[in-house]
Amino acid sequence: MMRAEGVGLRLNGKEILHGVNCTVTPGQVTVVMGKNGAGKSTLLQIMAGQVFAGKGSAAGGAVAGAVWLDERAMQDIAPADLAGRRSVLAQSVQLGFPLPVAEVVELGCYGRYHQLTALQRKQAVDNYLDLLDLNPLRDRSFLTLSGGEQKRVLLAKCLLQLDAENPNLTTNRYLLLDEPTAALDLEQQYRFVDLATRLARERGLGVLAVLHDLNLAARFADHLLFLRDGKTVASGPPAEVLTKTIIQATFNVDCLIQPHPCFNCPLITTLPYGKPNIAPACAP
Q1: Does residue 225 sit in the same domain as residue 261?
Q2: Looking at the structure, do residues 237 and 174 belong to the same domain, yes or no?
Q3: Which of 81, 114, 184, 230 could, after both became Cys, cross-link 148 (CB 3.0–4.6 A)?
Q4: pLDDT in tens, 3-53
């Protein structure tokens, strides 16, 4: 289990996060939501070990709280070990060289490159290209791909870094996704989040995702964390926290909440910004 306890960050005199708790459980999907500037990406970076809690300061900011990875303090885990335990799909990645897609995916082997033969690396790359339907793009330059295609390539690299299909794994693995559906079309948004959810269920990955779509979160999340101004508004299962009151408190928008006609989850319809909050309470 990955746990953040009382995480806070003060930067240039401003509190970016304040006393936030977050848990990522193997086999489940935790989704963080909130307005722009709520602290979602900052929380993900701290939980990824990119900014260490409990070390006093980072990049001029004071960091509070603690992050635990399977009962070990995050800052006590060696970088090479940490790289094999969690991988991060950032909001954007800049690549300065026209590497082919297959070579970008192969970067996921970097931490154990010399432990694998060339054949093993190729087989691993082929496996994840197949998993994400990327084989037709394997020889294309990464720089020529659409934003959505690049996201899928980077997800394949992240999964290869964790080697989630390795039957000999004895420790938990965690996949952290920072706004993974940005730049994806509607079909790819659902395919992407559905794949992450299936990986969690079938291979025991703990998934932490920052999302903006309430209905994607309602459909796929096991646990939701709502942030506003760096503080927790609500945390819990979707059935408990997807309410008019919490959505209004988090996003300043009114909404209708109804049973989804196809799935066992709520369907949320947000109302135009600035309109009076007159929507009937179709759900608590």
Answers
A1: no
A2: yes
A3: 184
A4: 999 999 988 888 899 999 999 999 999 999 999 999 999 999 999 998 766
